[in-house]
C-alpha cells in the first residue's frame, strides 16, 4: 500500500510540475522527411526561420521557400537570382536575406506577394565583389550580413563595411555579443562596428570553429574536424564526449542548443548527434534510422518544439518534443509488432516474421551500435504472443508453443496454432494455452513446462482468454460472443459452459473482448465497457468506465500497469486512466494521438514495465512512451489562406505568396480591394494550418458568410470552391483542428461581388431614362393614335348610323313582309277552314238531300199504296235508312280525309298518341278542333246534348287531363 501511495504522489508531482521538454534518449523521435520531389525546388537548403504567425521559411538554392503545412512555394528571389544562404526575421516579419553576391530584405504585400529589396545598391562599387552571405543576424538595431570577404552592417539605410586581409572564417552570435573568427587574427569581438581581438585570440586561429555556446563552464566550441572544446579563463581544453569518434570523423557543420543543456550537432557525413551537458550521447539520427540525408546545414526549433533540419538534400522535421519514439535499430527490418516483452534485460518483439530480441540496457543507454534486433532461430512464422511464466519465456506461434533460451527456441507443444497463455488460478504450475481450435494444458515439472493434453469439450478459437479468482475461464470469440468455462477436477475436460451474447445484455455479439483489471473481469464492446451483474447474470455498463470512456466507442483494449494506471484503446484513441490523490480519476489521451490508425486491427497491444516504460506494438514498428516526457498540447496556432483565385478567367489569382504570379510593377503596399466583377463570381480558396505535428491529420472547417448559414463539418479538405455567387459582400472564414483537438485562430478573406452590368446603379439610371423616353413616346404615340381613332370613330359612327338606318328600314320592311305573310297565312288558314266547313256542309247537304230524296220516294209510295202492311213496311225501311245513315262511316271517312289535310293529320296524330279513343270520340274531337259547340255537335253525332257532355267527359279521362283543363284548348293546341 505504501508503494502504491508513493507512486501516486510521484505521478501527481509530475502532473503538477511537468518536466521541461527535451529530446528522448530511448528510441528515435518521429521524423517527417520532405524531399526535393515533395517541395519541387533545389535539393540544397541552408537556413530555416519561422515568422510570428508560424509560417516556415527555408533558404533554398532557388530562393526563399515557404511551407504552410500543406503547400510549398518559392516566394521570392534575390535580384541576381542567386541561391539564398541565410535569413533573419524581425518582430514585424520583415525577412533579411543573405544570398550569393547579394543581400537585402523582403516583406509580404497585402496581396500575399513577397517583394524583395536589394541593399547592395547602398554599397560603394569597390565593396560589391563578395561571395556567399553565410550569416544574417539582427543584433540590437542593426542588421549584420556576413561573408568570407566582408561584413556588412546595415543601419538607418546606410551600410558600413568591415574587411579582412586574409578573409573571415565564421560568424557567431553568443548571448548579446557578436564574435567573428579571422584566419589570421583568431577570435574577434564586434564592438561599436569595430572588430576587437579578445585576449589570446590567436589560439582560435585555424580551429575552424563552426559554433560557439556560452555555458556555465565557459565557451563551448564546436570545431569542424577536431571535436568540441571548452574555453574558460583563457584556457582551452578538449570537451570529451561519447560521440567524439563520430564528431571528428564526420565534420561538424552546424549546432543548436536544446533545452536542459542538450546540444544538437549537425555533421556533414553522419547526420544529427545529440549530447547532454556532460558529453553523454543521447541520440544519433542518421540516414540508417530515418534521416534522408547525412549532410546537416542548419537547425531551427519551431513553436511546438519540433526541430527542423535543413540538409544538403532535403528537409527533415524531427519531433523531439514528443514523449513517443520508435524503437529502431540500424537494420530497421521489422514492422508489424503483435507483442513485446522485456525478459532478463532483453527486449523481445513478436512479429509476422518471427521473434526478435535486442539488449535493452545497451539500447536505452545509447549503445546503439551493438544493440540490434537479432532473430530467434527456429521461429519464422507469425508469433502472436510472448510472455514470462514462472522462470520461462514462452512464445505462442502458428506452429505451437516454444520456450526461448538465449538465441534459440525449443518447441514444447506442437499444436495447430497457439494464441496466448494464462496461468490457472490457484495452480501456478498449470498453464492454459488458447489455440486455433481449443484449449491446451501445460504443466511446470522441475522448472520446465511440459505439454499435457488438449482440453476436451471446447473446440472454439481462443485468442482472447482470461481467468477470474473463482477459477472460471473467460474466452471472447470475435463474432460469436463470450464463453465462460469451468473445468473438471482433472483439468482434462470442460465441466460446464455458459454463453453470453447480445441476448444477455451486450449491445452486439460482434467484436467482444474480455479483460482482467484489478482481479475483475470486464468486457469490451462496440458501445463501451460492460461487466456482469452478479445477481441477474446480465451484462451491464460499468459506471466508472462509462464516465471516462463513454458508451459510444469500441473498446479494443484495457490493461493495468505496475502503477495501477489503466491503459485503453477506445475507438481510434489510446489513453490511460490515472487515479489522482483525491480518489478521482483522470483520462489522458493527447500524448497518444499519434498512435491513431497505427495498430494492427484486432491485435492492439500495450506492454508496460515496472520502470515506467510503455511499449505499443503497431504496424509501423515498436513505439516507446516515456511518462516523464512532457509536451504542451494546447499551443496556439493559426490557419492561413494560402491562395485565392478566380476560376473565370482561368486561374486569375487574387491572393497568393507564390513567386511572380501576381503583377506588382510599382511595389505598392496599398491594400488591394477585393472587389470582383460579376464575371469573376467563381472563387477557389486554398488554406492550411501552421501546425506541423502530423499536419496531414489536421482537419478544417469553413464558412462563407453571406452565402452559407454556418460552419461546415470538419474534413481533411484544404481547398474549397464556390461558383455562381450572387452579388453581395462576403467573408470567407476557415479554421483548423489538429490531432490534439486544439482549434486554431481563424483566417478570413473579405470580398465583394459586384452585380452584373445590367443590375448596377448606372444600369438602373439608364433603365429609368429609357423607361421615361419610352413612356413619353408611348404617350405621344397613343395621343396620335387616339386622334386618328377618334376621327375614324366619328366616320365609323356616321357610317354605322347610315348602316343602322338602312338595316332598320330593311328590318321594318322585313317585319312588314313577315306580318303580311302571317296575315296571309292566317287568312289562308281561315279560308281553308271556312272552305272545309263549306265543303263539309256541302257534303252533308248533298248527302242529306240524297237521304231526303230517298225518304220522299218512300213517302210517295206510301201515298199510292194505302195498304197498311205495305205502308208499315215502307216506314220500316225509312226508319232503317235513317239509322243506317246515322251509323254509317262512308261519309265520315270522306270528311276525315279532308279534315286531316286541313289540320296536319290531326286525326292520325291523336289516334297514335291516344289509341283508347273510339271513332265517335275521334269525331267529337274533330268537331272540337273545328271549334263547334255542344249544341252544334249533338245533331252531327245524332245524340242529345247530354250525350255530347258525357262523351266529352269520357274523352277527358282518356286524355288524362286535370279537372281544371279546357279540353277544347287542348284539342286546338294539339
TrEMBL record:
UniProt entry keywords in alphabetical sequence: Coiled coil, Membrane, Phosphoprotein, Transmembrane, Transmembrane helix
Coiled coil: 794-825
Source domain of life: Bacteria
Entry protein name: ABC transporter substrate-binding protein
Transmembrane residue ranges: 761-779
Keyword Lipid biosynthesis attributed: no
Sequence ranges assigned to domain HTH luxR-type in this UniProt record: 914-971
InterPro entries: Ig-like_fold, Quinoprotein_ADH-like_sf, Sig_transdc_resp-reg_C-effctor, Tscrpt_reg_LuxR_C, WD40/YVTN_repeat-like_dom_sf, WH-like_DNA-bd_sf, Y_Y_Y
Amino acid at each position: 500500500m505504501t508503494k502504491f501511495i508513493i507512486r501516486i504522489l510521484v505521478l501527481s508531482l509530475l502532473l503538477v510540475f511537468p518536466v521541461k521538454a527535451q529530446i528522448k534518449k530511448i528510441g528515435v523521435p518521429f521524423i517527417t522527411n520532405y524531399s526535393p520531389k515533395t517541395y519541387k525546388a533545389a535539393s540544397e537548403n541552408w537556413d530555416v526561420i519561422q515568422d510570428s504567425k508560424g509560417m516556415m521559411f527555408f533558404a533554398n538554392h532557388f530562393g526563399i521557400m515557404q511551407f504552410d503545412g500543406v503547400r510549398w512555394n518559392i516566394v521570392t528571389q534575390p535580384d541576381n537570382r542567386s541561391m539564398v544562404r541565410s535569413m533573419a526575421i524581425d518582430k514585424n516579419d520583415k525577412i533579411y536575406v543573405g544570398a550569393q553576391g547579394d543581400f537585402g530584405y523582403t516583406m509580404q504585400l497585402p496581396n500575399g506577394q513577397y517583394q524583395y529589396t536589394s541593399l547592395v545598391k547602398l554599397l560603394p562599387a569597390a565593396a560589391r565583389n563578395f561571395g556567399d552571405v553565410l550569416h544574417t543576424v539582427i543584433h540590437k538595431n542593426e542588421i549584420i550580413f556576413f561573408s568570407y570577404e566582408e561584413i556588412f552592417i546595415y543601419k538607418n539605410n546606410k551600410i558600413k563595411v568591415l574587411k579582412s586581409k586574409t578573409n573571415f572564417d565564421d560568424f557567431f552570435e553568443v548571448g548579446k555579443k557578436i564574435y567573428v573568427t579571422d584566419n589570421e587574427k583568431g577570435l574577434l569581438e564586434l564592438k561599436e562596428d569595430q572588430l576587437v581581438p579578445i585576449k589570446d585570440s590567436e589560439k582560435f586561429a585555424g580551429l575552424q570553429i563552426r559554433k560557439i555556446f556560452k555555458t556555465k563552464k565557459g565557451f563551448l566550441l564546436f570545431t569542424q574536424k577536431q571535436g568540441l572544446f571548452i574555453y574558460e579563463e583563457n584556457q582551452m581544453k578538449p570537451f570529451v564526449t561519447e560521440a567524439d569518434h563520430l564528431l571528428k570523423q564526420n565534420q561538424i557543420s552546424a549546432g543548436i542548443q536544446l533545452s536542459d543543456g542538450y546540444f544538437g550537432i549537425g555533421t556533414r557525413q553522419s547526420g544529427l548527434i545529440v549530447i547532454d551537458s556532460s558529453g553523454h550521447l543521447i541520440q544519433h539520427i542518421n540516414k540508417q534510422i530515418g534521416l534522408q540525408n547525412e549532410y546537416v546545414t542548419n537547425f531551427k526549433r519551431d513553436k511546438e518544439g519540433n526541430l527542423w533540419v535543413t540538409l544538403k538534400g532535403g528537409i527533415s522535421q524531427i519531433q523531439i518534443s514528443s514523449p513517443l519514439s520508435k524503437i529502431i535499430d540500424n537494420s530497421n527490418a521489422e514492422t508489424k509488432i503483435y507483442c513485446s516483452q522485456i525478459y532478463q534485460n532483453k527486449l523481445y518483439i513478436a512479429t509476422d516474421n518471427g521473434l526478435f530480441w535486442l539488449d535493452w540496457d545497451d539500447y536505452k543507454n545509447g549503445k546503439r551500435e551493438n544493440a540490434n534486433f537479432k532473430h530467434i532461430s527456429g521461429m519464422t512464422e507469425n508469433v502472436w504472443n510472448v510472455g514470462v511464466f514462472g522462470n520461462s519465456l514462452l512464445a505462442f506461434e502458428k506452429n505451437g508453443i516454444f520456450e526461448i533460451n538465449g538465441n534459440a527456441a525449443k518447441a514444447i507443444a506442437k499444436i495447430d496454432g497457439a494464441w496466448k497463455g494464462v496461468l490457472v488460478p490457484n495452480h501456478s504450475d498449470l498453464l492454459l494455452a488458447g489455440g486455433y481450435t481449443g484449449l491446451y494444458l501445460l504443466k511446470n515439472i522441475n522448472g520446465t513446462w511440459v505439454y499435457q493434453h488438449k482440453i476436451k469439450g471446447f473446440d472454439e478459437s481462443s485468442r482472447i482468454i482470461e481467468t477470474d479468482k473463482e477459477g472460471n475461464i473467460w474466452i471472447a470469440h470475435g463474432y460469436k460472443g463470450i464463453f465462460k468455462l469451468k473445468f473438471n477436477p482433472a483439468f482434462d475436460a470442460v465441466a460446464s459452459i455458459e454463453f453470453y451474447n447480445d441476448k444477455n445484455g451486450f449491445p452486439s455479439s460482434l467484436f467482444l473482448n474480455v479483460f482482467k483489471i484489478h482481479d475483475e473481469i470486464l468486457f469490451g464492446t462496440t458501445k463501451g465497457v460492460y461487466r456482469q451483474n452478479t445477481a441477474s447474470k446480465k451484462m451491464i455498463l460499468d459506471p466508472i468506465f462509462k464516465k471516462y470512456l463513454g458508451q459510444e466507442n469500441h473498446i479494443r483494449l484495457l490493461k493495468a500497469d505496475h502503477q495501477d494506471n489503466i491503459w485503453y484503446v477506445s475507438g481510434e484513441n489510446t489513453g490511460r486512466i490515472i487515479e489522482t490523490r483525491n480518489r478521482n480519476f483522470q483520462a489522458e489521451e493527447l500524448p497518444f494521438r499519434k498512435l491513431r490508425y497505427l495498430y494492427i486491427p484486432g491485435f492492439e497491444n500495450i506492454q508496460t514495465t515496472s520502470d515506467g516504460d510503455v511499449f505499443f506494438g503497431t504496424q509501423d514498428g515498436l513505439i516507446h512512451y516515456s511518462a516523464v516526457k512532457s509536451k504542451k498540447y494546447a499551443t496556439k496556432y493559426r490557419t492561413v489562406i494560402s491562395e485565392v483565385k478566380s476560376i473565370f478567367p482561368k486561374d486569375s489569382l487574387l491572393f497568393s505568396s507564390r513567386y511572380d504570379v501576381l503583377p506588382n510593377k510599382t511595389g505598392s503596399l496599398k491594400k488591394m480591394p477585393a472587389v470582383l466583377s460579376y464575371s469573376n463570381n467563381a472563387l477557389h480558396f486554398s488554406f492550411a494550418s501552421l501546425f506541423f505535428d502530423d499536419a496531414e491529420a489536421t482537419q478544417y472547417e469553413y464558412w462563407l458568410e453571406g452565402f452559407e448559414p454556418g460552419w461546415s463539418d470538419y474534413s481533411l479538405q484544404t481547398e474549397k470552391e464556390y461558383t455562381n455567387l450572387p452579388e453581395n459582400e462576403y467573408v470567407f472564414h476557415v479554421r483548423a483542428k489538429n490531432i490534439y483537438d486544439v482549434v486554431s485562430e481563424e483566417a478570413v478573406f473579405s470580398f465583394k461581388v459586384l452585380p452584373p452590368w445590367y443590375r448596377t446603379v448606372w444600369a438602373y439610371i439608364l433603365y429609368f431614362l429609357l423607361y421615361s423616353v419610352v413612356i413619353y413616346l408611348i404617350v405621344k404615340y397613343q395621343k396620335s393614335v387616339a386622334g386618328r381613332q377618334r376621327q375614324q370613330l366619328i366616320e365609323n359612327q356616321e357610317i354605322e348610323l347610315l348602316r343602322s338606318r338602312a338595316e332598320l328600314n330593311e328590318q321594318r320592311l322585313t317585319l312588314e313582309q313577315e306580318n303580311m305573310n302571317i296575315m296571309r297565312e292566317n287568312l289562308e288558314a281561315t279560308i281553308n277552314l271556312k272552305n272545309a266547313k263549306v265543303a263539309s256542309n256541302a257534303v252533308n247537304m248533298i248527302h242529306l238531300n240524297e237521304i231526303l230524296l230517298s225518304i220522299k220516294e218512300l213517302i210517295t209510295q206510301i201515298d199510292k199504296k194505302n195498304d197498311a202492311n205495305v205502308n208499315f213496311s215502307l216506314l220500316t225501311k225509312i226508319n232503317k235508312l235513317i239509322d243506317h245513315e246515322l251509323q254509317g262511316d262512308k261519309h265520315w271517312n270522306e270528311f276525315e280525309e279532308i279534315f286531316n289535310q286541313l289540320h296536319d293529320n290531326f286525326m292520325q296524330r291523336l289516334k297514335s298518341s291516344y289509341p283508347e279513343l273510339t271513332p265517335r270520340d275521334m269525331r267529337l274531337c274533330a268537331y272540337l278542333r273545328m271549334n263547334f259547340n255542344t249544341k252544334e255537335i249533338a245533331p252531327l253525332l245524332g245524340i242529345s246534348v247530354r250525350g255530347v257532355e258525357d262523351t266529352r267527359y269520357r274523352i277527358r279521362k282518356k286524355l288524362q287531363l286535370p279537372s281544371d283543363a279546357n279540353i277544347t284548348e287542348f284539342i286546338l293546341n294539339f
